[in-house]
Design brief:
CATH class of the domain at 178-276: Mainly Beta
Number of helices: 9
Order of helices and strands: EEHHHHHHHEEEEHHEE
Shape: rod-shaped
Largest sheet: 3 strands, antiparallel
CATH architecture of the domain at 178-276: Sandwich
Helix content: 40-55%
Structural class: alpha+beta
Strand content: 15-25%
Distance between the termini: 153 Å
CATH topology of the domain at 178-276: Immunoglobulin-like
Length: about 280
């Protein structure tokens, strides 16, 4: 006798198997063997319960389904074999203590070379920043020292330079290049009917390409043997009017000047003249 696992009733399992068996021989054999192997007598004369409904419901799987299940099983086994190994490897890597790298002292010459390189880089930056300011300062200095020549060559620039000098307290004068001013000739003679008065006549030439300031004239009166008796200096205002002094001597021009002066005593035995800027 067999008790049903679903309704808990007693029935003859052998009869039930024979009545519900499939006509095909293969299936009946399978269920008969299952019944024979799963129904055994206990020591008290009772038989073990078997759920024949589940046995009847179970059907053999198709080959494609079985292959899919085998592939899935193989993949699951592979995953189970690989994941624990990776976890173990990661755990070992994480658990490894940090490696201590032994540091050696840097040689002295290396430190010196690094300091020199840093100093050179600093100087490079200073040069790149300072060169523009140095160029501007150089241009300003050139403009200041050569303001007279710039103004003589360019009247337009001279007007701006005079305006700037008015603010900063400098002056823009005419150029003074004594090497470009020459004394072509000079003559000294007494004035007739005026005892003690003399007349100095000189021819001054400007060899420059720009206007130049009038120079001062030095006169030395000497004896017959060349000994200096008197030394006189005549500034431009002594032999020219103020307007002529302001204009200067024109470029590539020459002009004759005359200077009257008094001198006590006899007429000197000789004289010499020279030009200079004060």
């Amino acid at each position: 006798m067999v008790r049903c696992g679903a309704c808990r009733k007693l029935f003859n399992g052998q009869d039930q198997l024979e009545s519900s068996a499939d006509p095909s021989a293969g299936h009946s054999t399978v269920y008969t063997e299952a019944a024979e192997t799963t129904t055994t007598d206990d020591t008290d004369g009772r038989m073990t319960l078997v759920d024949f409904g589940s046995l009847r419901a179970a059907k053999p799987s198709s080959p494609s389904t079985m292959q899919y299940e085998l592939d899935a099983l193989s993949k699951a086994i592979t995953d189970l074999q690989s994941k624990p190994w990776e976890t173990t490897q990661e755990a070992e890597l994480d658990s490894e203590p940090p490696t201590m790298v032994a540091t050696t002292p840097t040689p002295l010459f290396v430190e010196v070379a690094r300091k020199r390189e840093q100093s050179a880089n600093s100087w490079k930056w200073l040069l790149w920043l300072g060169i523009p300011f140095l160029l501007i300062a150089l241009l300003l200095q050139l403009g200041y020292f050569f303001r007279a020549d710039i103004a003589a060559r360019s009247p337009e620039a001279g007007r701006y330079l005079r305006a700037i000098c008015t603010r900063v307290g400098c002056q823009v004068r005419l150029p003074e290049h004594i090497d470009l001013i020459s004394l072509e000739s000079s003559q000294l003679q007494p004035v007739a009917d005026h005892p003690g008065q003399f007349l100095l006549t000189a021819l001054i030439r400007n060899q420059a390409n720009t206007v130049q300031a009038w120079p001062s004239i030095e006169l030395q009166l000497k004896t017959d043997v060349g000994q200096i008796l008197v030394r006189k200096v005549f500034s431009p205002i002594n032999y020219l009017n103020p307007n002529e002094v302001r204009k200067g001597i024109a470029a590539r021009a020459e002009q004759e000047i005359q200077i009257n002066f008094e001198l006590s005593g006899e007429f000197p035995g000789g004289f010499s003249t020279s030009l200079f800027y004060q």
